[in-house]
Design goal:
Strand content: under 5%
Largest sheet: 2 strands, antiparallel
Number of helices: 11
Helix content: over 70%
Shape: globular
Order of helices and strands: HHHHHHEEHHHHH
Structural class: mainly alpha
Number of strands: 2
Number of domains: 1
Length: 290
């Protein structure tokens, strides 16, 4: 069975389940986000702290604490303190047990800290986007007629642009790609794929609004264009950042959790870069445009 067929089969099985959690929100989505976080921190630690089980355990516990508090509590002070505690725990590990190569110890510490900054905010933003649709002040973002769709619209906008950008870039690069975008990091990434993703993301959202207005009705054409333009850059940068990490540690995939896709990090790397932008758009920028 070809890798493409395996990718499509995995998507056919998992995608409906993921979309269902977006619809129901609440602890269904929080639970999914925490499971994704657990997989991501496990994969990241297995590669970055290979051969150091204590560092892997502390990364996992610290990262999960930061993610869980960011998802569950509404107090930003607690969320910030959890990040600081994670830094102190990981720093303490390498200060008390530096080994003989101090440069290596610091690089490993920096890489582990980066993992928390990289993984946690994107997953927190997924849940916050869904919560935004149920918030009391959502009336400032949608009309009264659009309120029923607001719950899942914001998160579906983020994920649809991400998936559309990735999928269109994949096929455009596969069939039309000639000019490499970042050959040393990802030899298969091309500028033709980049253009395909940039065109595909807004088209998919426009099509979604036409086909499923019950979900995408709150999105105006301005929303779709303004949302999609940065995603054309953020999605590939997220993908390339993960590829750079894998190249640095000489691994092909972050794991083998999802058949045809590799690990969880391989599947949602672009999400880490896209969802904070989409949340920022709906919270800060969209009110200024209306």
């Amino acid at each position: 069975m070809s890798n493409l067929v395996l990718r499509l089969l995995s998507a056919a099985v998992l995608l409906p389940l993921v979309i269902a959690t977006f619809h129901f929100g609440d602890w269904w989505l929080r639970g999914l986000a925490l499971l994704a976080a657990a997989a991501c921190f496990f994969e990241y630690g297995a590669v970055t702290a290979r051969g150091d089980p204590l560092a892997r355990v502390l990364l996992f516990l610290s990262g999960m604490t930061v993610t869980a508090l960011g998802i569950i509590v509404d107090d930003p002070v607690l969320a910030i303190l959890s990040v600081q505690v994670a830094f102190v725990v990981l720093s303490g590990l390498f200060v008390l047990r530096p080994g003989t190569d101090l440069a290596l110890a610091f690089r490993t510490l920096a890489s582990l800290v980066f993992g928390i900054i990289w993984i946690a905010p994107g997953l927190i933003c997924i849940c916050r986007l869904r919560d935004l649709g149920d918030a009391d002040n959502v009336h400032a973002l949608v009309t009264a007629a659009q309120l029923p769709a607001a719950g899942s619209c914001f998160i579906m906008a983020a994920m649809t642009t991400t998936w559309a950008n990735d999928t269109c870039a994949y096929f455009a690069g596969r069939f039309l790609g000639k000019h490499k975008m970042a050959g040393l990091i990802s030899p298969k990434k091309t500028w033709e794929g980049f253009v395909g993703g940039a065109i595909g993301a807004p088209l998919f959202l426009l099509a979604g609004r036409a086909i499923a207005p019950a979900v995408f009705a709150p999105l105006t054409t301005v929303d779709i264009i303004v949302l999609s333009m940065p995603v054309a850059l953020l999605g590939p940068v997220g993908d390339l950042a993960e590829s750079l990490w894998k190249r640095a540690y000489d691994v092909k995939d972050s794991g083998n959790l999802i058949p045809g896709h590799g690990g969880m990090l391989d599947r949602i790397d672009a999400v880490f870069f896209v969802t904070p932008w989409v949340l920022g758009y709906f919270v800060a920028l969209k009110p200024l445009l209306h």
